[in-house]
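Go through this pair.

…
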Amino acid sequence: MQHLCPERQYCTAFAQNSLPAPTLLRGVALLPAHVISRKSHAQGCRGHRSAVRAQQGQSGELEALSELAEAQGFRRKNPLSDKFEVLRFHHIEWWCADATNAQTRFSCGLGMHMVAKSDLSTGNTTFASFVLQSHDMVFAFTAPQSQKQPGKGSAIPWYSRSKAFQFNQHHGLGVRAVGILVTDAAAAYKIAVQNGAVSAAEPVTLTDKATGQEQTVAEVLLYGDVVLRLVSGSFQGPFLASYTPVSSHPVSYGIRRVDHAVGNVPVMHDTVEYIKRFSGFHEFAEFTAEDVGTLDSGLNSMVLASNNEMVIMPINEPTFGTPRKSQIQTYLEQNEGPGLQHLALKTDNIFTTMKALRAASGAAGGFDFMPAASDDYYRQLPEKIGNVLTEEQYAMVKELGLLVDKDDQGVLLQIFTQPLGDRPTVFLEIIQRVGCMRPLLDPRGEEVKAKDSNSPVLVQAGGCGGFGKGNFSELFKKIEDYERTLSV
């Protein structure tokens, strides 16, 4: 396949790193995670890609891991460049036409239970909204009420029924807000706007009637009709302080949190620079069509991350000049513009989680998954990944249709759903990351010790095991096969 960026061979180089002691997993060394950012060749690659678009009329073993995946062509560095302190993903809000049925399907399909709501039963005649939770993952599903009825009791002061109806008309089921927890939402909003972010909602203080706890919420545009929602305050509930708590029986298939949120845009560079400018997020990894495409289609992708790498946001753009339309271009057409393509949901035991998700799929009301990879893929997997997985685990990988990849730091197990709605747009990824454990640090940079011992508390580094670069070609083939069944 022709390289999209031929000048890479002249400017890619590897840097030596000073790495902490490795973590041992089954006796094999896994290097702790470090941040991946582009080398200087990337500017040249961007220029080459732009030229291509203009010309086409379109705007072995873990010891050898350093030679694989995202390690090639990147310098390990975390510039700690955030312009405001970011802690983690707080919630995801989906906009839909019918919140009752949407939340029911996600509850069944992902193993989530309802924890809060705002609808006619709570005095809200503006919209219906239901909040689901599984450990640290919080999803809200919101649908507008009739515009012919007076709107009152809105739990979100800046909510617009007309915008919600337009969103549904243009995009169908989709993510409206990516909520992130910050130390000071009002200050973060001010800094973001001062650095070029487009305001979507000025800071508002919400109060929980039961506890008096407060919460500050503000929004800036992320891409398309998706906003980045900044959340802070003393409120300890799962979503927004203005919602009514709901008691329900806890249900969980083992999904712990949102790992990363992926956006699709027409021109990656412009969106990446916009987000970097207002947030200070750093470049974690870059992929080009030569890395992740097939002979038929491809994409370019840049991964952005916060200082602590707990908020990770890849940005994709389509490539052109291939026999088939890029899956990113299909998304942009069917979504009628940029939007959130998929959410990666993290579990600590993907085998247990996927058995539950498979049982809930299809006629049970849950989600369908992409077909399994080829027999050759699974036959070659032990040689590619090594002895991190047992023979029994390799058998379960094939049985459940999982994909496995590794980088120079850890191992990634992953699987993708088919599109969630009528349009071939938004979908989900279920992942488990193995390795990359490091000491938890407090705000002063000191190790946090366990209460019952003097041992440091260990946490997993963000992005451990990469993003499945080694699986992209196999995945793209399945997506291409799937899209051949659609009139897109």
